[in-house]
Amino acid sequence: MKILITGNMGYVGPVLTRYLRARYPHAVIIGYDSGFFGHCLTGAGLLPEAQADVQHFGDARLLPKSLLEGVDAVVQLAAVSNDPMGNRYEAVTDDINHRAAVRTAELARDAGVKNYVFASSCSMYGAAEGGPRRETDQLNPLTAYARSKVATERGLQTIDLGGMVSTALRFATACGMSPRTRLDLVLNDFVACALAAGEITVLSDGTPWRPLIHVEDMARAIDWAIHREAGNGGQFLAVNTGCNEWNYQVRDLAGAVAEAISGTRVSINTDAPPDKRSYSVDFSLYRELAPGHQPQVSLAEAILGLKNGLEGMNFRDASFRNSQFMRLKVLERHMEEGRLGEDLHWIR
């Protein structure tokens, strides 16, 4: 088996590579990444890409056709990966997250790839009232990042897939420790605040709903998708990926972290205007289609893993929101130092 992972040097990629290497020791794993965040290691005892067979550096918009020769599955992780970055680089977000992803799918189809997996997002439900969102419910993307995910799914539905099976995994919000941990994710941020300052400051009124999924369980879902057959969900499938038990209000996440890390105070801005990005999600279809790849990590385990991982790094940076743990800050620093252009191409 030969697997190509685009965007493998981010937050999810190292965990996915480790998972696949352990599960399929004889597989050929190929990484392709721009390298923006390659230096942002967090407690890694090994360069994560050492567990791949080959690492290529390049822009997702310029993926060479030759890399797809003999590949069985493509995992499209490459993306401008959150709302702050998407808002800052809106046009580039569409180019990378949408147009490049659809182009890669077309190249994969032409190369005879069997499975194409797209890392989509539940954020496309946006402001959602009336109960947990199902895949058939109306989409309401509120940000450039969410709109790019919707556009990609529509593109994948539109193109002729030939004999290829395509899966859009609408992931819940990621969390958990990784060899390149991000702290611009809600649960990760709360644990970092608790360790560095002893206080979690919830900037909203705490009422928005968020579904979460641990990064290890994201890898488990991708493993299912790279083997999925058309008879199990259709040639193209968009599926909410997570579990119903992991739908939480933001204030409850803060409370869970405070309970796990003694001495933590929680401050909620009850006067803040409501965060419109609020959605709970129904994951029943994923449970039905992938019973052997369901999430296994609990919220308590995710918090403990982050606590132990960050403490193992002697993390105490109360100013971490200005650090390399925030992906937008990394891009800005590359630009300030003349390495990266506003189009997110390296300056050669």
From TrEMBL:
This is NAD-dependent epimerase. Keywords: Plasmid. Residues 3-232 form the NAD-dependent epimerase/dehydratase domain. It comes from Azospirillum brasilense. CDD domains: SDR_e. InterPro entries: Epimerase_deHydtase (IPR001509), Lipid_A_modif_metabolic_enz (IPR050177), NAD(P)-bd_dom_sf (IPR036291).
